[in-house]
Amino acid sequence: MSGHKGGKPSVPTTKNCDEGVSNRSGHRPFEEILKARISRRSVLTGGLALAATAFFGGVGAAQSFGLGGKPGGGGGGPLLGFTPVPVAGGGGIWPRISPEYQFQVLIPWGDPIVPGGPEFKWPPTSADQEQQIGIGHDGMTYFPIDRDDKDCDVEEDEDRDRFFPLSQGRPGRGNRLGMLAINLEFGINIHVFGKPMPESLEDVRVSQHAHGVAIVKIKKKNGAWQTVKSKNARRIHINTPMAFSGPAAGHPLLQTPNGNIPLGTANNCANGVTFWGTYLTCEENFNGYFGAANAWVPTPAQQRYGFSANGFDYGWHLFDRRFDLSDPDYTNEENRFGWVVEIDPMDATQKPVKRTALGRMKHEGATTVEGRGGRAVVYMGDDEAFDYIYKFVSDGNWKSMRALGKSPLDHGKLYVARFNEDGTGEWLELTIDNPALAAQFADQGEVLTFVRMAGDVLGATPMDRPEWITVGPNGDIFCTLTNNSSRATPNAPNPVAPNPDGHIIKITDGDKHVGLTFEWDIFLLAKDTRGTEHVFTDPDGVMADPDGRLFIQTDGGQPNGLNNQMVVADTRTGEIRRLFEGVAGDEVTGIAMTPDRRTMFVNIQHPGNGNPNVTNFPVNNPVPDGETVPRDATIVITRKDGGIIGS
Ligand code: FEO
Ligand code: CA
Ligand code: CA
């Protein structure tokens, strides 16, 4: 780690995640159904209402591909064997981890994606940044390479590299060599290039190339992880050619008057992984990168998606016309963002594909699970206050579809969730065959492009900012609802108003994930952890493991002076312990594991909010020097005794 010094991004700034409200539809207030539900919910009495679900069976998570392996012990005994990080001593400028654990920093912002590439200099050039890890480390997937753990030093023979589904768990394989696909969600201008606003197209390009996705090959050697050479390492950013697929591909709403080809992905938040070994990256707060250089009146759709004249103050539109909402040559450019994008991590020549059948929203993540009949099911949150939870179900068995040359992500049904007051719910299909939608939308392509508005029409349930979704070992679905300070009135699925601390909802989906109805319950209210040693708020990243642990990451001001953190819940007993605490001003997000679950990757995003007066992480200066720019980075977590993470 070199401690490059540069100018001082000394203006403390906040994260750009959109905490606004775009849903003004107000079509289905829950006030009337709330009272009955509240009266019966013990969770509101203040107890920590963790569902006492039996978590054995080990089938659901194995199918989810979110996390590999088989149940790893615990056998009904306590799942959390580690000493928790205490509240006392929190809020520092260096991470804290349980004493039975250790961590290593990997691929900080600005490291070359292959050894020998341009080293980090601050501020970076746009040309260098294209060959470096970008900023805003977020959702990620470790793709194990089917190679014996003892045989990882063969770096050049990449034609031997094969992905295998984590769930198939091949003992002793793929735990020390893999491709890491990682989202680079965002970095504010002052952090990335030292100015509050761009002063040239080059400034804009630096910012643009810092955003996107990185694919890097990593291996463990001599006890430490490092990047290695790979022809498949690549950077994908806002100027990378993209393909569109599915019902909205080629739609007039995705065409611009000047005919520019589709380029780029931005604000890549959480992620998913397909059964066939590709990476899903999810475009979240894309609205913030657009602005208006001249007079501009937003359309209803632009309003619903939160576009504004200044965006999030990136200023791209001042030098790159593509992002200028007032430029008539680029009408509809903004409709090309807000999609789930499929990337092949084992083939750098593949053009990333935007899968329009999954709808256009502020996608948090795309969590896959194999449903009844081998159908590909994708659960998705739309992260904005009062927005919705969605599910996609492929038309057929994913293997059969792929054998016919069809992508399971192009052909299927998209649903939005409505939660009833009695703990049941319905999946409402977003189809132009519904007369209520046909009355307002021209065709399925328009429904998908403006899917938030279609959800408004159908009466979906506005939620408290749906973030990550994970599937537990018995098939239960957990969705973090990070917070909603704008909620004035509680209702059954969002029972706290205002809700500054957030909660986690559990969904038991019908008919092995392909049904039209579901049951739900509040899994946890974060406010109930206040006053306890395991306090946390603002749940965001989340991952279930095959034993019944739930790893919960936070993004928001934490109580008791703590920094953002990662806690682990035993879903069988309700016990919670703090495994990791990040550094001042950061967010802890992104989570991936090796198939043997002995190595976990998480991220520290925007340490110090980019301010070197707060922290110099990952340079460990005990007192910040005010000059060494902090860098977002991946943290590799292992147990000192080599045990399963979380045990
Ligand atoms: Fe990028 Fe909703 O967090
Ligand atoms: Ca998030
Ligand atoms: Ca968040």
TrEMBL record:
Against Gene3D superfamilies, the record matches this protein to: YVTN repeat-like/Quinoprotein amine dehydrogenase (2.130.10.10)
Q: Which Pfam families match?
A: PhoX (PF05787)
Q: Does the keyword Membrane apply?
A: yes
Which InterPro entries does the annotation name?
Answer: PhoX (IPR008557), TAT_signal (IPR006311), WD40/YVTN_repeat-like_dom_sf (IPR015943)
Per the record's keyword annotation, is Magnesium included, yes or no?
Answer: no
Transmembrane segments annotated in the record for this chain: 43-62
Its keywords, alphabetically, are:
Membrane, Transmembrane, Transmembrane helix
Region (Disordered) residue ranges read: 1-26
Entry protein name: PhoX family phosphatase
Q: Name its species.
A: Candidatus Manganitrophus noduliformans
